[in-house]
Design a protein that fits this description.
mainly alpha; two-stranded antiparallel sheet
């Protein structure tokens, strides 16, 4: 990356996946206004997606209530319904926080170095290279997993088709659920129902991938600034406080670093404020969805259906793992600031420098973490807790057979 001759722009970190661009499911299209601020010009995608969600969940809620009232079996595919709720919650949270997201990206844009020299000091090329690799892996998975998930029920339907009077099973449907006029049992409109399911599925999945892109972009930027500040702290030499040529200028530099530390903590707090509600709500839903998918994988005898349910299960587990890993990385990057302060030779400095550093170390002990209103800390232990919860729910369902 040292051969790069042009500075990297922050917009290059905000590239959404190709399939989102092809189907025009871009919840955020960032452009700059006359003042140079980033603004979003694609809120209509949010509104169109929510209208479909209101319809989708409305008719399925009606089916659930009707089946309870009449004592009949509902038409719901619980794993698909649970993961749809999971995706939609993330979309709703993005919509609620859309102004905060844009404001925070403008804060990061002001912090982002604009020239090559400054970018190399902050290791921007290396951060961007890691971002591109991850973006490519996620896009590759989506390009193969989404078509596989969509066409598996169609292939099953074709292979097991008997006649026009045979029922259309849940295994033949992409999402399942209920539609008026018994459309899901009408073989003549099966292609149209499948297209409706594909569109509904894309609405949910793009909510998820947009959330994922924004979360990882912001987290990478925050970690980048924390690591750069850590290197500045490690470069401090307490002996300079004894024979500084200009003592006032020396302490102005130290006070500037303290203010920078406070500013970075505020940035971490803003980052946490944007995502904490989404994390809190989707944790239980994600564990429930993993449980339902595991149950169907163990109960299914059809290899195609097993593949169909393995794909979303892997996505849920991997992305849950990654969001917890990102939380651990943020916590570790913040704690390294305290270690950098404590491990320097502050005890060899002047009396004033020692007093100032001890107060600073005390402040640095308040490590910034990704939390959900203080109820959970998003780290690798939290990932273990989610997987244990999913397994407990799974064993409970198996025991009820």
């Amino acid at each position: 990356m040292d051969t790069v001759n042009e500075p990297i722009k922050i917009e290059q970190f905000l590239q959404f996946h190709k399939y989102q661009q092809v189907f025009h499911f871009l919840h955020f299209q960032f452009v700059r206004n006359e003042d140079g601020r980033l603004i979003n010009k694609s809120e209509m995608v949010f509104r169109a997606g929510f209208l479909l969600d209101v319809w989708f969940f409305g008719i399925n809620l009606f089916d659930i209530l009707r089946s309870i009232h009449l004592g009949e079996t509902s038409h719901q595919n619980l794993p698909v319904l649970s993961i749809s709720v999971y995706f939609t919650i993330r979309g709703i949270m993005m919509f609620i926080k859309r102004h905060d997201i844009v404001d925070f990206l403008n804060v990061l844009d002001r912090e982002f170095p604009k020239d090559l020299v400054s970018q190399r000091v902050l290791n921007v090329p290396q951060v961007f290279e890691r971002y591109q690799k991850r973006h490519g892996y996620v896009g590759l998975y989506a390009n193969y997993a989404l078509p596989g998930f969509c066409f598996t029920p169609v292939v099953t339907y074709i292979l097991t088709y008997e006649d026009g009077n045979a029922p259309i099973l849940l295994d033949h449907q992409l999402l399942g659920g209920w539609l008026p006029y018994d459309l899901r049992q009408n073989h003549l409109v099966y292609p149209l129902v499948w297209l409706y399911d594909v569109y509904s599925m894309l609405v949910g999945v793009t909510f998820f991938t947009s959330f994922d892109t924004l979360f990882n972009t912001m987290q990478a930027q925050v970690i980048m600034h924390l690591d750069c500040f850590c290197r500045q702290l490690e470069a401090l030499n307490a002996a300079d406080s004894h024979h500084a040529l200009d003592e006032r200028q020396f302490y102005e530099h130290i006070c500037g670093l303290i203010r920078r530390h406070q500013q970075l903590n505020l940035i971490c707090d803003k980052f946490n404020d944007i995502f904490k509600l989404a994390i809190l709500i989707t944790d239980l839903v994600g564990a429930t969805s993993i449980c339902f998918h595991l149950y169907l994988i163990t109960e299914s005898q059809d290899p195609l259906m097993i593949v169909k349910y393995i794909l979303p299960t892997l996505a849920l587990v991997v992305f849950t793992f990654e969001i917890c890993l990102r939380g651990s990385q943020l916590e570790e990057a913040s704690s390294r600031l305290n270690e950098a302060l404590y491990n320097q030779n502050w005890y060899m400095g002047s009396k004033m420098y020692r007093k100032l550093t001890l107060i600073w170390i005390k402040y640095a002990q308040c490590t910034r973490k990704l939390t959900a209103y203080g109820l959970v800390e998003v780290n690798m232990k939290h990932f273990s807790d989610i997987m244990q919860l999913a397994y407990r729910l799974f064993t409970f369902l198996k025991s009820r057979q």
